[in-house]
Design brief:
- The structure is a single chain.
- By secondary structure, the protein is of the alpha+beta class.
- It folds into 4 domains: 3-22 and 263-307; 71-202, PAS domain (Beta-Lactamase), CATH 3.30.450; 320-425 and 595-618; 427-455 and 464-589, Heat Shock Protein 90 (2-Layer Sandwich).
- Helix content is 51%, strand content 16%.
- It is built from 13 helices and 16 strands.
- β1 and β2 form a beta hairpin.
- α1 runs antiparallel to α6 (261-311).
- It is rod-shaped, with a radius of gyration of 63 Å.
- It starts with a helix and ends in a 22-residue tail after the last helix.
Length: 618
């Protein structure tokens, strides 16, 4: 994976993780802050509602008690009821009408929602609701019979006992809303009369809820919600609910609720901001990763390109740009190349010396063979000449022919050795390998084997030898054109010679094709008998041959040319018989180490001029 992609992925992952962690933490912190705000609101609402309701209850209690004690219309109602001997039916109609109007006026004056004048038997004498006048209310009857605080008793019978109760909640009934209810009662001379006043709780709770930002409703003794208010157990994702206990008002419980919708909206807005922030951070991280990757990868890519150029023979050193580390890497690479080049030169020199020793040994061995018949012929001529033998003239022609033939053989051996030892280093240039192979193949296909190259003409069938080319598109190769021609020529000639010894239809096929990693492949296949198994290990050694008049240097020269071009050559036996030689060559030409292995100071001297007979002059 490229460095830019790795940095991009790394920065993206870091940005996403950081945004997720910060966003999650911020979201949870915001939720906790809002939730704690709910608690603070509930506490403030509880304290405010409790204080306000307690004040309202105390105010109501203080309103009615003075009326029962010495108010004019209460005294009048008590007196008229006493005169009627406690029988409300005996009251004068005018008195009833008067009491009805006085109760209504008093309710308005005291800002009470309801005010009821009732007898001890629960008979309503006066009320704002005219329909209630003359009816009996058992709940009010029971209410007036409760023992009053601050009871007063006139033992002479001329006084009156005044009783009052603590404020309580009157639950909703029918169309009546929940209200704060307070009462007072006056008993004297066997007659009891009382006042019951109420003030609705709803408007008060609505006003307090608006002030504290909560919704308030009454719940009577856990019986549920009133007028659509949520029950105490209604806490959910939609709202937060809390029940407020108010002991100052008997039976009053207030359910406070706060909608979670603002929280959900705030969290949704926060989520959107977090996503937008994350996307912005990711975009910034991507830009930074791209810029950083380019700033880091450009020097590395340039260094890799210069390294390939130097390895392919560019006459310069690698330049490190982009930082101290890149410069140090380039310096270390240059030092390594110098060390490897020097080591390769030393190794090549040692190998060359060893090879020359081995070749000199083999040349000496090869030269010994023709020296024996030369010596025998000369010695025979000397003996015949010394005794003036008549057979001297007859043997002279035969002996001199033998000597000249063996001398020519020695000259060929020395010439092949000189050609192998003085093989020049490759002179790389862009070469169209397909064109080179086509020309060599065309030459051999048209003329067969060159008789001068093998010392004899070829025995072919009626159709003659066939040399074919099968090639794919290959890139231009940096190589020595003449040496590539020599490689193909040697392999094709060897294949034709081997095929003609066993087959009437000798055939050689040359195949070209590309390989991965910037290489090309050359395959030369023939339909001959192949190489003997015992010769395969020594196939590319100098003077290793099975030919009667061969020198064994052809494949050695081919191997040396291929190796000096930075390539490889191998042999395998074809499945249907025949020899297969496969060559791999780098497209970029001989690498740096191969070129530095033969410095100018170690190049062999120029070839000595040859004598007219073909042997090198001493």
């Amino acid at each position: 994976m490229p460095l830019a992609a790795r940095l991009l992925i790394a920065f993206g992952v870091v940005a996403i993780i950081a945004t997720a962690l910060v966003g999650f933490t911020l979201r949870e912190a915001s939720r906790e802050v809002v939730e704690s705000g709910y608690v603070d609101r509930f506490d403030a609402a509880h304290a405010g509602v409790r204080q306000q309701l307690a004040w309202e209850a105390e105010a109501l209690r203080g309103l009615l008690a003075p009326l029962c004690q010495h108010d004019t219309f209460v005294d009048k109602a008590h007196l008229e009821l006493y005169r009627a001997r406690g029988n409300p039916e005996a009251l004068d109609p005018g008195v009833r009408i008067s009491l009805r109007h006085q109760v209504a006026e008093q309710a308005k004056a005291l800002r009470l929602d309801e005010l009821t004048l009732v007898t001890g038997e629960g008979l309503v004498l006066g009320a704002e609701d005219v329909a209630r006048i003359g009816t009996r209310d058992g709940r009010l009857k029971a209410l007036l019979k409760e023992k009053a605080k601050g009871e007063a008793n006139d033992k002479s019978g001329k006084g009156a006992a005044v009783a009052g109760g603590a404020p309580r909640l009157r639950p909703a009934a029918g169309d009546a809303e929940p209200s704060l209810e307070v009462h007072c009662a006056r008993t004297g001379q066997g007659v009891t009369i009382g006042l019951v006043g109420t003030r609705r709780v709803g408007p008060l709770l609505e006003r307090l809820g608006a002030a504290y930002g909560v919704r308030l409703a009454t719940a009577a003794d856990g019986e549920g919600a009133a007028h659509g208010a949520p029950s105490p157990q209604a806490s959910s994702e939609a709202a937060v609910v809390r029940v407020l206990e108010l002991p100052e008002v008997q039976g009053l419980r207030v359910v406070a609720s706060v909608s979670r919708e603002p929280l959900q909206r705030a969290l949704a807005l926060l989520d959107r901001d977090i996503l937008m922030t994350g996307a912005t951070v990711l975009a910034i991280a991507t830009v930074i990763a791209v810029v950083l990757a380019r700033s880091l990868s450009r020097p590395i890519v340039a260094l890799a390109r210069e390294t390939r150029e130097v390895m392919n023979g560019a006459p310069r050193k690698v330049q490190g740009r982009g930082g101290l580390e890149i410069a140090a890497l380039a310096e270390a690479f240059n030092g390594t190349i110098d060390e490897l080049a020097a080591m390769r030169r030393r190794l090549a020199t040692a190998e060359r010396i060893a090879a020359r020793r081995e070749i000199a040994r083999q040349v000496a061995h090869e030269i010994k063979n023709p020296l024996a018949p030369i010596r025998a012929a000369v010695e025979t001529l000397r003996r015949l000449r010394a005794r003036e033998d008549p057979a001297f003239d007859e043997y002279f022609e035969e002996a001199t022919a033998t000597v000249l033939e063996e001398v020519h053989r020695i000259a060929n051996i020395v010439g092949e050795f000189t050609r192998f030892a003085r093989l020049p280093p490759p002179n790389p240039e862009p070469v169209d390998l397909l064109e080179v192979a086509r020309r060599v193949v065309t030459l051999h296909a048209a003329h067969g084997d060159d008789p001068a190259s093998s010392g004899r003409s070829l025995e072919t069938s009626a159709t003659g030898p066939r040399v074919e080319l099968s090639a794919e598109a290959v890139p231009r190769v940096s190589a020595d054109r003449d040496q590539l021609v020599q490689v193909l020529t040697n392999l094709i000639q060897n294949g034709l010679e081997a095929s003609q010894t066993t087959r009437p239809d000798p055939r050689v096929v040359v195949t070209l094709g590309p390989l991965p990693n910037g290489r090309v492949r050359i395959v030369v296949r023939d339909n001959g008998p192949g190489v003997a198994e015992e010769m395969v290990p020594r196939l590319f050694e100098p003077y290793a041959t099975t030919k009667e008049k061969g020198t064994g240097l052809g494949l050695a020269i081919v191997q040396r040319i291929v190796f000096e071009h930075g390539g490889e050559i191998s042999y395998r036996k074809a499945q249907k018989g025949g020899a297969v030689f496969e060559i791999w060559l780098p497209v970029g030409g001989p690498p740096l180490l191969e070129q530095t292995a033969r410095p100018p100071s170690e190049r062999p001297p120029e070839r000595l001029p040859e004598s007219p007979e073909g042997s090198p002059r001493p």
